[in-house]
């Protein structure tokens, strides 16, 4: 497994001709960082209105609130780069028959699938690190310009570290879910459509809508409405949406469980990510072991 992981990391990061996926997605993240920071500067200098300025000032309160507003949210740029990057990397292995040269036994196949799950975690961490670095560096550049803007204050270091942990685990979970689509469909269009759903928050939105409708036209769902709401809350895209506000709520109560009680925001984010990584990994390995290569 470790040899295959080293090989994959080399293929992803090969700098010759910038053909590795890392450099391609790093370029995309850099462009997005320039675009978002530039747009923020333009809005603040244009004076589009007190409401818009108040929202932007809130987003610039701390580094985590700035990063959360630009990288996370109901549509997460970070999750898009992480999941689409792994889809782009793993799909040709199956469609072009590369896996057949690596796997010769069920045990070997399980090791291959497990290595891809580990690789997804590393890739998600790289996307998170690059996204944070690019946004903060571009922000620093804008500070040197006339009428620049700045972060108002620092984050609590522990809260910021826990915020990064939760964002990484949630992104890793969404990436593994996208890889399930690769194992099932193996065609670009359905794979990318399926991978886009958890990025856009479609799953928790649908569950919340069903729970809400249980009081009306879908009254037959009323007995399971609380369960639908709970599942929607404990989904990785819900974590990214909540974490878009920054690290200031990491120690506040995020949700309450019947047997556990109040759960702080950081624990909710981390546990949600781990749960869905395990669920997604089990599904990915089960499907991958049964499908023909």
Write a concise synopsis of the structure shown.
Keywords: Membrane, Transmembrane, Transmembrane helix. This protein is mostly helical.
How many domains? 1
Mass-distribution shape: globular
Strand content: under 5%
Q: Rg to the nearest angstrom?
A: 21 Å
Structural class: mainly alpha
**Count of DSSP strands:** 2
How far apart are the termini?
Answer: 18 Å
Query: Overall pLDDT, averaged?
Result: 84
Order of helices and strands: HHHHHHHHHHHEEH
Low-confidence stretches: none
Number of helices: 12
Strand count, sense and closure of the main sheet?
2 strands, antiparallel
- Major sheet strand order: 1-2
User: Approximately how much helix is present in the residues?
Assistant: over 70%
Keywords: Membrane, Transmembrane, Transmembrane helix
Transmembrane segments: 21-44, 64-87, 117-138, 158-184, 191-212, 266-287
Protein name: ABC-2 type transporter domain-containing protein
Organism: Collinsella tanakaei YIT 12063
